[in-house]
Amino acid sequence: MKTTRALVLDLDGTLIDSSDGVVDAVNYSLRMMEQPEQPPERIKSYIGFPLSQMYPVFTDASVDQLCHHFQVMAARTMVSLTEALPGADDTLRLLKSNGLKLAVATTKIRVHVDGIIAKLGWDVLFDALVGGDEVTRVKPAPEAFKLALNRLEIDADEAIAVGDTINDVNAAKAVPMTVIAVNSPYGGRDQLLAAQPDHFIESITELPRLLKEQSLTVWRRS
After folding, report:
1. Cα separation, 217 vs 124, whole angstroms
2. Model confidence over 20-67: pLDDT tens digits?
3. What is the full DSSP assignment across 139-187?
4. Is the peptide bond before 176 cis (omega within 30 degrees of 0)?
5. Would you say domain 19-77 falls under CATH 1.10.3470?
6. Angle 63-77/19-32 helices, nearest 10 degrees?
7. How far apart (Å, rounded) are the C-alpha atoms in residues 43 and 40?
8. Which is deepest, 17, 70, 153, 190, by most CB within 10 Å?
9. What pLDDT, in 10s, does the model give residues 121-180?
C-alpha cells in the first residue's frame, strides 16, 4: 500500500445527522400515497441505504412515486434540518491540516450534498464531492468511491474509505480500498462488524488517532 493521501468519507451517520429531514420526507411521501406513516426509529435504520431498498419494506406502493414525493419534501427541509455530528467539524479540520485530501461519496443527491456542505462551512475542506445521482449504481456498488478517487486524481491504494453502513464497507472492498467503519448513530453495529471492515471506531472523533497509531498516514502533528 502506498502512503495514504486521501480519505473518501460517507456523509449520513459518518459526518452528519440528517435524520429529521429524512423522517419528514419519508412520512410525507407515504402520506401522499395514502400509506401508513412509519416510526422515526424504523426509518432511521435505513439511512445510508437507497430509498429503493427501504420503501418496499414499508409498502407495496410505487417506489418511483414515493421517491418523487420524498424529493419534493427533501428540497424544502433536508439542508435546514441537517447538523454535523459531534466532533465532525474539528476532526475534518484536523485531518485537512495534516495534508490529507478529503472527499465525500454518498447516496444523497448532489444538490443536497452541496447545500449541506455549504451550510456547515465545509466547502474549503473537501476536494471532491460525489452524490448518489451522479452514478449509475449507488453503494454497495463501488461506483461512488471510484468516481471520488477519479476526481481526487488518487489511486485506490492511496486512499481510505470511511463509512457507517455495510454498504460503505462492501462498496470499498469492491474497489478495492482499505475501509474504516464508524459506529452509526442509526444502529446496525452487529451488521457493520460482520462485514469485516479493516478497522472500526466508535466515533469519527477517533479517526485521527487511529490513522496515527496504525501508521495509516504520515501524521504531521505530535
Report:
1. 21
2. 999 999 999 999 999 999 999 999 999 988 999 999 999 999 999 999
3. TTSSHHHHHHHHHHT--GGGEEEEESSHHHHHHHHHTT-EEEEE--TTS
4. yes
5. no
6. 130
7. 5
8. 70
9. 999 999 999 999 999 999 999 999 999 999 999 999 999 999 999 999 999 999 999 999
Spans of all domains in the chain: 6-17+82-213, 19-77
DSSP 85: P
Residue with the three cell numbers 419494506: 57
Cell of 192: 457493520
DSSP for residue 103: E
Res 73 pLDDT > 70: yes
**Residue count of the chain:** 222
Does the pLDDT of residue 219 top 80, yes or no?
A: no
Residue 9: left (phi > 0), alpha (psi -120 to 50), or beta?
Answer: beta
Q: For domain 6-17+82-213, give its CATH number from 3.40.50.720, 3.40.50.2300, 3.40.50.1000, 3.40.50.12370.
A: 3.40.50.1000
Instruction: Name the strands in the sheet holding 101-105, side by side, starting at the edge strand that comes first in the sequence.
Output: 128-130, 101-105, 6-9, 159-163, 178-182, 199-201
